[in-house]
Structure formats: C-alpha cells, structure tokens
Structure prediction request, 327 residues.
Amino acid sequence: MTITKHRTATFEILVQKHFCDIELAAVVHTLQTANMVLGGSRYDWRIISDKPGFVQGAGVCLVRAEPVIPDHFLADYLIVIASKKRDPSVWLTRVRSMRHLGKAVILLADAATQFISRTQTETGAVTTHWADAVVLRETQDLPRLTGNLSEMSNGIITAAGRTATPELILGLLAGELSVSEITDIGRHLLLPSIRASSSTQPFAHTAFQKFYDKAVSDTLALMEANLSEPLSIADIAEHVDTSQRRLERRFRAVLETSPGQYYKQLRVRRAHQLVQETNLPLIDIAIATGFGSTGTLSTSFKKVYGMTPSDFRSKHRDRILDYSAEI
Prediction:
C-alpha cells in the first residue's frame, strides 16, 4: 500500500494589541480540528506581533507572540488580526513581502478596514465587517467595496472575520481536501452550514424580528411572505394597523433605512441566494423575487453585487472560496 505524504502548510498569524480574541481562537481551532480529522500535522502555525512577548487581546485572551523579522520566516499564509488602535505599517510591510513571493495574505475585519482605507483598489473587490463598511462608504468613494463574507483582489483576501472566520479558514484548506474531509471538519466545528465566500453578510433583519416592536416585526414578516408579489408600503401599513408615515419613522429608527429600500434589499438578497444555491432559470428567480423580468433583476443585482446574476452564477460555483483556484 502506498502512503501519500502531504507537505505541512504553515500559517503565520500576525496579531496586535487589542486584537479580536474570537478571530484568533477561530483560526487556531479550525487548524487544530483539521489536523485532528486528517490524522496528522498537516497544518502548522506561529503567532507574531509588532510588539513581541505577551500580547493582550480586546477581551481576556493573552498570547505569547514572536517578533516580526522583515523578509524572514515567511509562511505559506499570512493572516492579519490587527487593531484599529495600532499602527499598521509593520503588517503592511509584511503583506508586501508575501505578495512579492506570490504567497496568500488574509486580512480579517480591522486589518481589512485599515487596508481598504489606506489603499486604492482599482481592480477586483474588497470587503470588511459590515459595520466598518458602513463608515467607509460614508467617508470614501469605494465602488468596489462589497457586503460579502470575503473578497480577493491582487492576491489579498479581505474578510468580514468575527464568527465567519472558521468558514474562511476551511475555504483556504478546501482546495487540497475531499468533500467528505471538508464536511467532517465542519461537523466537528459544529457549523450549521458552510457558506461560500460570496455569501452576503450579515443575516437579514428578519432573523431577529422578535426583538423589534410589533409594527416593525409584523412588517418584516409580511415582506418575507410577499417577495414574489411585493406589497405597496401603504398596503403594508394598513395590514399592521399603523399609518405609512409612522411606519417610515419606526423603520428608520430601528433599521436606519426606509421600508421601501429594505424591501428591495430583501428581494435582491433572496435572488442572490437562489442564484448561488439553485439551478433555477434566471427568469424564474426574477419572478420569485418580484422583479418580473431578468433585465430588472440584473440591474438591481448588479448595483449590489457588482455583476449580473448570470456572470455571478458562472463565476461562483461549487467552491467554499469562490477564488480558491487563484490562491
């Protein structure tokens, strides 16, 4: 019997003071779980920092980090878990060194935010945690900033991070794993599903509607139930026993948008899910989400996702990381 020996892939995790504890834990735990499931030491990692020694996270996490030595000990992957309170110059230099060698770079949340705000991306898309994306859009013209879980531009992966980190790391590993290995790791991590990198963040507000006042929660339920034949806002207001003006005020107070804008966003996101997860013809998806024609759907879809549904479907298919072949 032939025993196949796999090369150990190395991860360098760069942290800064006040790093996100959950992101570091997610990276390390996912790699540990992969090694356990695969029955060996397929993945190795080391933690480095601009301030070596003991580094305190934003919560209770305290880690011992090695120093960053310029242009030395570069791993196969560099994962940056930065802090918006710290100078990014050290890890930005490390990023350039990695990219010079054609190696993979992953910037999680705060690092992605700093990278986006300091660099002008002219090709490809970028993303970060949705809360930071809101601020970035208010202060800069960023047409290539998306709301997806992760994006890759010029070999650099920007990502939402936080609790989506295990899926991202699993996506990095997936290129060398079988489907059964991927699903087994996901099961051990207790992931309810493994979302693709092109999945939209965050969950729709309808998932949390029980926390809102009755008028808003009833409105969200009505919208969710009437995607294929959208109701007018006046009809919705009548159904929830309030005035259209008061409903507009409550929506803006709770969700910081108008009912009409949110309703359209909900329909576009549902269309995105159907394009990504089913083989339904685009005309059926357009009808199912209340757009009526593929042209109307394409226009709305492109405004949000930067490409038409047909282009999206041809590019994003059957991979956890939709750009995994490029890493």
About this structure: Residues 8 and 95 are 21 Å apart (CA to CA). Strands lie at 9-15, 43-49, 53-56, 62-67, 77-81, 104-108, 150-153, 156-159. The chain has a mean pLDDT of 89. Residues 259-277 form the longest helix (19 residues).
